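PROTOCOL LOG
Step 1. Enter all chains and additional molecules of the complex.
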Amino acid sequence: EPEVTQTPSHQVTQMGQEVILRCVPISNHLYFYWYRQILGQKVEFLVSFYNNEISEKSEIFDDQFSVERPDGSNFTLKIRSTKLEDSAMYFCASMGGRTNEQFFGPGTRLTVL
Amino acid sequence: SQQGEEDPQALSIQEGENATMNCSYKTSINNLQWYRQNSGRGLVHLILIRSNEREKHSGRLRVTLDTSKKSSSLLITASRAADTASYFCAPLNWGNQFYFGTGTSLTVIP
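Step 2. Run joint prediction.
Step 3. Record the structure below.
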């Protein structure tokens, strides 16, 4: 069964460093998302991406964040200058065009020291 | 916002019992979906119910939707220890992004 994959599973970085989180969505899906979940809190929407551009973003998704689909398979989330409060699980999701079901990846745990 | 709010926040039952959790939302919707999250893992899609449906079944899951009350319920019958997880509802209208609530934390005691 096709699935969304994410790498790395755990990323540790120093405050102020740039990180890139990678996702490989399901191959024929058209809509892509990033969510994050701070430990013990709810899953929060960050950004949605369709047709090679951002379609919606939350107020969390400020200028420090960017997304890219550099090729036909990867979908990346970049945080330019990480802060302590960026420590969280980051989930990628993708959705096909026929249903509204989103398929989530296993997440990347980001720890900012 | 389209956020769903689940109730109760926590539920603890014995294996074999049924578990019922509820969801309320505020806006009109096209559909509502339920997801499960095991501790520290990604969300797994369970079931989708459209706004013109009132009840839907999938295996041991039964979902109801009352659009007049803006509420939904998820029933898990004959629960198993493996059902222990957090459960989230995701109401969807415009756009495709979900605004998740805090979920119901279900513990099934063997």
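Step 4. Note key features.
The radius of gyration of chain A is 13 Å.
Residues 32 and 111 of chain A are 23 Å apart (CA to CA).
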